[in-house]
Specification:
Layout (H helix, E strand, L loop, with lengths): L1 E5 L5 E7 L6 E5 L8 H11 L4 E6 L17 H14 L5 E6 L1 H12 L4 E7 L5 H18 L3 H10 L5 H15 L15 H8 L4 H4 L2 H11 L17 E6 L6 H9 L4 E6 L6 H4 L1 H13 L3
Parallel strand pairs: 3-4, 3-5, 5-6, 6-7, 7-8
Antiparallel strand pairs: 1-2, 2-4
């Protein structure tokens, strides 16, 4: 099932539902910011629908949802409010959350504000702190620049990694990732198929125009600035069962954030030894099995 939900501002967001209603319901919160939910359903939707009912959404202004206008709001609180609109649309008293990357940040904020509606959290390589993630990725980029023989750029990345302001370091990171071109994919994928995401986009049948909407979504979130506040200390306030799927070679979550996650109650961490930032792609069978085991243990 797929369709559109109208938001209070009269714009529409796109959704797809897989799995049957008797199964536990989870909402999928994508990362990026602005990636959309297509890749998650393409890679794992059919498998997970065997035991979950998943509502996957393209957030406001993203991919198949209505595009954002220049004067249109798109802050962190707007996105959180959208998920409440979606939950109410489906007449759900509660649901679980599956999130990836920056979606983990949104999912955490959502759970902190609406703890009574979130039954459990499943994180795939999340960020809880963009500063911490930036430091980790910059160090990975420095190593790559060294391998490419670009010693000055490597040194510049290491210097940028010492910046203390979250928004400034994120902007520096974006510049160095852009300069890497297609090579930046190697920072996120451990296996041989480094450019799987671009191939999937090309084969999706969704126009490049729609995929490009992520830029406006990102820009508005970064300009609003709420996303640069760390959630590491807030993780202790998450009381529902939570699962962390961590790629051994993932630079986004990093040791600091994984350790902070582990300190809370009802926490479980599963390390994917052959994965970077996308365990659902690099180790799909184990991804399925770990989530099945976690959800089965909640019943």
């Amino acid at each position: 099932m797929k369709g559109y939900i109208q938001l209070p501002n009269q714009k529409k967001v796109y959704y797809e539902v897989v799995g049957e209603e008797p199964f536990p319901t989870y909402v999928y919160i994508h990362g990026g910011p602005g990636t959309g939910s297509y890749d998650f359903l393409h890679l794992q939707g059919k498998a997970l629908s065997e035991f979950l009912r998943i509502i996957a959404v393209d957030q406001r202004g993203v991919l198949r949802s209505d595009p954002l206008e220049e004067d249109e709001a798109c802050g962190l609180q707007d996105i959180i409010a959208d998920f409440e609109t979606i939950r109410e649309y489906f007449q759900l008293q509660s649901w679980g959350v599956i999130s990836h990357s920056f979606g983990g940040y949104i999912g955490t904020k959502y759970c902190l504000q609406m703890p009574h509606v979130v039954t459990s959290l499943i994180y795939e390589c999340p960020t809880f702190d963009l500063h911490s993630s930036s430091v980790s990725i910059l160090k990975g980029a420095a190593d790559m620049y060294k391998r490419l023989g670009q010693i000055d750029d490597a040194a510049a990345c290491m210097k940028a990694a010492t910046i203390r302001d979250a928004q400034t370091i994120w902007e520096e990171l974006s510049c160095y990732l852009h300069r890497l071109g297609d090579k930046r994919d190697e920072l996120y994928v451990h296996g041989e198929d480094k450019h799987f995401f671009d191939k999937m986009v090309a084969e999706s049948g969704i126009s490049a125009h729609h995929w490009s909407r992520s830029g406006t979504h990102q820009k508005k979130l970064y300009e609003e600035g709420s996303v640069f506040a760390s959630l590491i200390d807030d993780l202790t306030h998450i009381t529902c069962p939570a699962l962390l799927l961590q790629g051994r070679y993932d630079l986004v979550t990093g040791p600091e954030q994984a350790e902070a996650f582990s300190k809370g109650a009802c926490r479980r961490t599963e390390l994917f030894h052959n994965s970077g930032h996308f365990p659902r792609f690099e180790e799909p069978e184990r991804y399925f099995e770990v989530i099945l085991d976690f959800v089965s243990g909640l019943r």
